[in-house]
Amino acid sequence: MSSVNPSPSQTGHLPDTSGSHSGDAVLPTPHQPLAGDTSTPAYAELVDRFIRHYHFKHLGDICSWDRSAMMPPKGNEARAAALAELDQLLHGLLTDPALQPLLAGAAAEPLNDLQRANLREMRRAWLTSNALPTELVQRRSLATARCEHAWRSQRPANDWAGYATNLRPVLDLVREESRLYGQALGIHPYDALMDLYEPGLTRAAVDRVFDPLRHWLPPLIQQVLARQAEHDAAQPLLRPVGPFAVDRQRELSLAVMRKLGFDFDAGRLDVSAHPFSGGVPEDVRITTRYRDDDLLPSLMGTIHETGHARYEQNLPRAWLGQPVGSSRSMGIHESQSLSFEMQLGCHPGFVQGLAPLVAQFFGDQPAFAPANLARLLTRVAPGKIRVDADEVTYPAHVLLRYDIERALIVGDAEVDDIPALWDEKMAALLGVDTRSDYRNGPMQDVHWSGGAFGYFPCYTLGAMYAAQWFATLRRECPTLDERIAAGDLKPVFDWLNRNIWQQASRWSSAELAVRASGSELDVAHYRAHLERRYLG
Amino acid sequence: MSSVNPSPSQTGHLPDTSGSHSGDAVLPTPHQPLAGDTSTPAYAELVDRFIRHYHFKHLGDICSWDRSAMMPPKGNEARAAALAELDQLLHGLLTDPALQPLLAGAAAEPLNDLQRANLREMRRAWLTSNALPTELVQRRSLATARCEHAWRSQRPANDWAGYATNLRPVLDLVREESRLYGQALGIHPYDALMDLYEPGLTRAAVDRVFDPLRHWLPPLIQQVLARQAEHDAAQPLLRPVGPFAVDRQRELSLAVMRKLGFDFDAGRLDVSAHPFSGGVPEDVRITTRYRDDDLLPSLMGTIHETGHARYEQNLPRAWLGQPVGSSRSMGIHESQSLSFEMQLGCHPGFVQGLAPLVAQFFGDQPAFAPANLARLLTRVAPGKIRVDADEVTYPAHVLLRYDIERALIVGDAEVDDIPALWDEKMAALLGVDTRSDYRNGPMQDVHWSGGAFGYFPCYTLGAMYAAQWFATLRRECPTLDERIAAGDLKPVFDWLNRNIWQQASRWSSAELAVRASGSELDVAHYRAHLERRYLG
């Protein structure tokens, strides 16, 4: 990516980083200057202020989890008011006029590398927090709340015209927001939106990996479908027979989380309508949902969220509370959930160990035979809905959204153009007809209604990073697949811990990739992974 | 009580208050002055500030509940830091120097009665928040944390000497605190401590009800025990046979909560080591704990907490967010939990309906026959432990603590005197020998370790108020006992809602009692209740 600042060791990840960071033994934590050192008063003051911000954010994160996982309906209004009050406080902490001279002062202080990385992240938080005038934030908040609220009934009614009425003002405000963020960060407006989720990401960097994908993905999907049909003809796929008791699914989820190293002394699994990973790094709250007619969605959803959770649970303890100690970005986060769900969870060797666990909770069905279970988990079927998509067709959903939202932000398209663009791209990429089916077309996601433009690319960047991490792992540990098949996941966890989790936000995503894998994001790893798994 | 400000209608509670408050139809909520009214700018500003305080407190209340009911152990340190940060913010909001002129300004504004009551409560919150210098609060916090922490291991070790070492500095600080609160409120130091939990409460008011109690309680206990022994000889008491599956106990608890009108759309039941009622009025979180060898503790504990919960759930919606809209006091709160647990839960008529519910979940045991179940629930047995005490001996535990802590605060006793005082009073009040058994003596409660002196009287005041509410209910609804026996609890809930819940903090406790029952707290109702139930 364009903002990369290559490390001195371009040849690959650092050699002796096991357990702690290369050279970190002599560095203090970012929280505290060296004992007795009074040469960094501005930096020390910033550290205190960001710890305060972290403490308050903790309360919001736990209360937000509670809202989704625990709160009864009548608590909603009071909770919303309390969280809005907290948001205002958090925003106030980052827009305090005292910060500007402190940031300038700290930049002139004798900071070590870690502290300087922390200062970089502080500055970023300050820039983005100050980019928008309060009245714009309020107008945006009203417009997105109205759009989201109406969407909940307009989507089931397939009411595109009604939805468009509310989406237009949201788009207007996001365009204004993108210009202001762009000005503050000195970058292009759409890049500025992506930057909120994936710092440093640019259209050029996305295109570098999405343009090849755009060309090889549709034929790959057709090849995979043909291969799958042959396989089905030769050996019919067996479906598990339900119902699947919810309490057993929960037990299975907990068992798989244990297998995947989730620390239950520092987190929980609960239920919510839309699964997520929340809470705080010291206490990660993941959720899933159960359907009694199918056990695979809760199982794979739990594995996905466990990937997010382990990243948070293994951020460096000593850095927590400071911006440099938080997870790097949405793309890198997704690379962890997809490392768990796709690279590991659907790995035929992993499935060998998963199958008996499933049978332990749901009986010895023929469908739970490892080879059949692996086929179930890698089933490819082009469809209209992104969140239901398989590993192979998922990126098509992202490509389409990236193209459309980018055009919307730069003014090459308007809200009224969305349905036609959608239909055309769904037909071209997946051969799926979405005409007039708005609710399963551009009305299926909540992102745009909520003003979240620039987020979608992160999903597929995450999948690509995950493939790159595992390609590196295989290079470094040639027996990796055998070890996974033998139930030994330690090489995977150790590598992720050392190269991703413990690095937190010390480097840009691009530099993190170079240090971890020897190169910036390279789509070849992703293509190789898909071909190996689905055509190999 | 001495601070009572009798209402114009001394003859009893107001006649036509069903549903809403007498005369309130013409009053605005305390939140908003009349539309277009700009004559109360200081009051309006105070209202905004207290709403802000309420929003932040919401986050702390939910996170505190979470800490006890949900949080895994490794989350503790971060949670403690976050809650401490919030405490500092909340304290800062109430010690903002801008409040003093606003309070003075509002006092000169044309406020209605409700607004004036709100201003009185605001002033009280401001006075108590500003009474202590920050350094004292910090020293107190350190001393109590040290004392509580050590107590957790000293209590099981029966180490009085070690415990006393930590309790002495706590007492010193609480004495200092009591002098400062006393100065701020213009009252006696021990009254000032009680005032924190029960505003307006004085030693004189406590003595007015405790002095008679002190004389008639010990002989009453002996009479009850003799009567109970006779009854046992004539008809042996049957004990339920366990084990009692925890999930069934939970189902039973939920069923009883439904019977008692708990609103599950505005609250939850969960598990914690020490049962409590928490959360926020809009979303009340109660907890219980289950033992598989006995079902009655979780059952009666749930009924107790449901009483607290219904008070909170039925505070007047329009007043929430303002001090006048919160529950009146600890004593009044306890009068609700004990109205549910003792007045209602152990009522032989109520038990007629409870018994088949218990049998529904645990089978048709002879012990669950209504008459036997009622005997189990009203079993009297003098013992060393307050929290395990029955309805009849419980007040003895409170009398003893009141006498000792009052002597400690005024300097008539020192920490080293506690064991001898304890032994003497336990022998005199309950005939129980506690010599050398410190862990089941003065080390059994956490209150004093945490600096909570002045709280204990509220438990028994609550029991007395509960008896007074039910005496009034019977006067107003002569068929009350028949209706309870028929499973019709509406008269109880309607009365409590109208007279207690919907009154929130509009009146002092003493005036609330006069308006609800026609007189200030009168211990005769309590004595009559005990005699009727246990000697009738």
What would your notes on this structure say?
Two copies of one chain form a homodimer. Chain A has 536 residues and is mainly alpha-helical. Chain A has 20 helices and three strands. Chain A has a three-stranded mixed β-sheet, with helices on both faces. Chain A is globular. The two termini of chain A are 30 Å apart.
Cα distance, first to last residue of chain A?
Answer: 30 Å
Percent helix range of chain A: 55-70%
The general outline of chain A is globular
Strand content of chain A: under 5%
Major sheet of chain A, described briefly? Answer: 3 strands, mixed
Biggest interface found:
A-B, 35 and 36 residues
Report the mean per-residue pLDDT of chain A as an integer: 93
SSE layout and pairings?
The structure is a homodimer of 536-residue chains.
Chain A: H1 41-69, H2 76-94, H3 99-107, H4 113-130, H5 134-154, H6 160-185, H7 189-197, H8 203-234, H9 246-259, E1 267-271, E2 277-280, E3 283-288, H10 296-313, H11 330-344, H12 348-362, H13 370-377, H14 394-410, H15 418-430, H16 457-476, H17 480-485, H18 490-499, H19 509-517, H20 523-535
Parallel strand pairs in A: 1-3
Antiparallel strand pairs in A: 2-3
Helix pairs in contact in A: 1-2, 1-3, 3-4, 5-6, 6-7, 8-20, 9-10, 9-12, 10-11, 11-16, 12-13, 14-15, 16-20
